[in-house]
């Protein structure tokens, strides 16, 4: 009997394009961090360690059969709940969000890993359901996601909670729920938000869940120029950094905004603004092109997956990464509220880097088993 891993078909089915795409994005991230970080040596070391650990995990997951996770679903789900509960009770608050754990040697953000665990467990939940057509059919998936979503909200991390929503919606759609129903609810939800905001600004209406702090964030998002030296400062500086980057940018380490400490968090939240200021429209377009290519490759793996379970995992990963890209780049341009969501593989963040590499490892596991190998 010939081992599966020595079979030529196994290695042929691996999506080798994922490696250069991901490493190209990570290389851009290292350039941004080395240029903009106030603590270059430490942050580059942490980012490098996370990338190395992520690569090991990527290779291990690629060799393992993702179907083995099917039988571990409830253990994984329990681990996810326990991990998020630990953050709620023992977490450390950073920038208003209590979503970090201090391990002594490093700070980690468990909600980043929780996204991957949710993708794995929700994929099994949806795969086990033959019918997914009516709103009643969503009862079990909602019950599956709600505890995790609630624990993330309890940490005060609304931006990450939105990513969980994006993951859940796309996976439910991929499982067969009618798209027109999802679109209808999305339109109604958007109309409700617009109505609430309009009523507040024009009639002073207050709503139970809308605290003064949240209204302040909304006000900063809609009218950053009203407080140019306070709440609106970072968005204004980010937009100016992008605007002054022109076509080719100012060059490596020549970014005026971060060199003068005008742009907050230039290597994390506003890494894209730093990138465009130094490398211009060409640099920003290249990064967006790499992301588009990455999403295309992952989707191709999903469409050719051997089982529905594999397809759902790939769609969850695409949703997670795409939500991060839209939220992060949107906030640097003032299109979406500032939420502190990192740009995948580029923003500094060891936990986020490790989580993203694990996600790509899952994709590689699905890719290498798109066909049944006879041996």
Keywords:
single chain; about 375 residues; mainly alpha; 3-stranded antiparallel beta sheet; 14 helices; about 65% helix; globular
Average pLDDT taken over every residue: 88
The multimeric state of the shown protein is single chain
Number of E-state strands: 3
Q: What would you call the shape?
A: globular
Strand content: under 5%
What Rg do the Cα atoms give?
A: 21 Å
Give the H and E element order: HHHHEEEHHHHHHHHHH
Question: Which residues form runs of ≥5 with pLDDT under 50?
Answer: none
Q: Helical percent range?
A: 55-70%
Give a quick account of the main beta sheet: strands, pairing sense, barrel closure: 3 strands, antiparallel
Classification by helices and strands: mainly alpha
Strand order, main sheet: write it out: 1-2-3
Distance between the termini: 7 Å
Number of helices: 14
What does this protein look like?
The structure is a single chain. A three-stranded antiparallel β-sheet has the order 1-2-3, with helices on one face. The mean pLDDT is 88. Helix content is 66%, strand content 3%. 42% of the residues are buried. A hairpin with a 4-residue loop joins strand 2 (97-102) and strand 3. It has 375 residues and is mainly α. It has helices at 8-13, 18-36, 40-63, 73-90, 110-127, 139-154, 158-174, 179-203, 212-222, 233-244, 256-259, 271-303, 308-332, 350-367, and strands at residues 92-94, 97-102, 107-108.
Provide a quick synopsis of the model.
The protein is mostly helical and 375 residues long. The chain has 14 helices and three strands.
């Amino acid at each position: 009997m010939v081992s599966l891993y020595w079979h030529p078909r196994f290695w042929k089915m691996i999506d080798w394009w994922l490696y250069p795409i991901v490493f190209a994005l990570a290389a851009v991230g290292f350039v941004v961090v080395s240029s903009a970080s106030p603590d270059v040596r430490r942050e580059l070391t942490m980012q490098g360690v996370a990338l190395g650990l992520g690569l090991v995990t990527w290779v291990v997951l690629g060799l393992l059969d993702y179907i083995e996770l099917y039988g571990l679903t409830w253990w994984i789900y329990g681990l996810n709940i326990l991990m998020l509960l630990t953050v709620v009770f023992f977490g450390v608050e950073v920038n208003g969000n209590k979503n970090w754990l201090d391990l002594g040697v490093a700070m980690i953000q468990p909600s980043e890993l929780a996204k991957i665990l949710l993708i794995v467990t929700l994929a099994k939940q949806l795969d086990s359901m033959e019918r997914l057509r009516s709103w009643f059919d969503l009862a079990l998936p909602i019950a599956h996601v709600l505890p995790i979503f609630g624990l993330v909200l309890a940490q005060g991390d609304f931006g990450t909670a939105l990513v969980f929503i994006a993951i859940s919606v796309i996976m439910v759609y991929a499982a067969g729920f009618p798209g027109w129903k999802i679109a209808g609810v999305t339109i109604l939800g958007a109309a409700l938000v617009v109505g609430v905001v309009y009523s507040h600004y024009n009639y002073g209406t207050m709503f139970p869940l809308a605290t003064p702090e949240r209204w302040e964030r909304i006000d900063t998002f809609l009218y950053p120029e009203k407080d140019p030296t306070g709440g609106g400062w970072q968005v204004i500086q980010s937009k100016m950094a992008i605007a002054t980057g022109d076509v080719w940018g100012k060059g490596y380490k020549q970014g005026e905004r971060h060199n003068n400490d005008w742009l907050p968090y230039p290597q994390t939240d506003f890494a894209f603004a730093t990138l465009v200021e130094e490398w211009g429209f060409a640099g920003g377009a290249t990064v967006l092109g790499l992301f588009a290519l990455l999403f295309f490759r992952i989707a191709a793996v999903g469409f050719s997956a051997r089982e529905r379970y594999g397809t759902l995992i790939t769609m969850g990963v695409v949703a997670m990464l795409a939500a991060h890209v839209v939220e992060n780049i949107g906030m640097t341009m003032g299109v979406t509220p500032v939420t502190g969501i990192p740009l995948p593989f580029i923003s500094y963040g060891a936990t986020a880097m490790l989580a993203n590499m694990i996600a790509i490892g899952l994709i590689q596991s699905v890719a290498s088993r798109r066909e049944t190998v006879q041996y």
